[in-house]
Design a protein that fits this description.
Strand content: under 5%
Helix content: over 70%
Number of strands: 0
Order of helices and strands: HHHHHHHHHHHHHHHHHHHH
Radius of gyration: 29 Å
Distance between the termini: 79 Å
Shape: elongated
Oligomer: single chain
Largest sheet: none
Length: 314
Amino acid sequence: MRLISKLQLSLLLGAISCSAQIRNIEIIEKDPLILKQSEASVSQPLPWKEQATPEANALNDAGVMALRQGKLDIAEESFRKAIEKSPLFGIAYLNLARIYLISEEDPAARTVYDRLVAGPHSGDELYAVAEQLVRFARSQEGTMLMESLALTRKAGAKPALYLGNAALGKQEYRDADAFFERALTIDGKSAEAWLGKGYIRFLARDFLRASDYFAQATAAGSREPRLCGLHLESLYRTGKLSAASVLMQSCKGDDPELIETKVRITLALNPFDDVMPLLRDMPEESRLNLHRKLFGTDRRPAINQIRADLELGY
């Protein structure tokens, strides 16, 4: 419902104030981020070049002034007219959408962002603006603009990847997986999307699918340092020891978890193999901890005796 319609409804009813009809009206009137173009260029500079006719600029300024006087119906209509006069007038879109967001009318705000994305601005400009809104602590606005952009191919897979990684960081795994899947519908060779989907499956202990996704990420050229170790552990956990033994040759590093996985693969293939060379580059404390974890002792003679007993047993 448009704000102007709510105000008209309030007048018709007579007994209900405007503030009762429009949520957070006092916050909207005092909001410091609904701006004239001249104010925005100083306090909230966005990485696009504003294009507006003098008439559109005047309408946006009139909307801001009306807002500060509590005339929300006039403000809303002014921002709408400014957009109609100049479809590249970005600040007018942001002002209009912000009114709706503060009044908790998210669907109306999303419609504004959808219209902005459908307009003449380039995908790269819109992506940069969404990122900058987040940096300006306007996360809800930046995220919603990014979501509208992700529904198109205007900026490629970047918006969906951005949203997928953000959801992953918040442990919202279902949303993250959906965004990574969206990225792959745009770019089926997105290493970042395959890696994200693999990591989600890895956390869910679905190691079979995780290993498949990690293989796709590797084939797509991922440079993530942890990818090889995650892929290696997924293969080990699914019993694909032959594939794991081949992959482990290319997994470099002294990460304790990686080395532990290599040791376990080596012992699973041959329990009599000497794994001490694998432990050589580990920090002393990490090496002793791994000894205790695998063999129940960190004393080398005792470990050698365990190996000898195994050989006699076989």
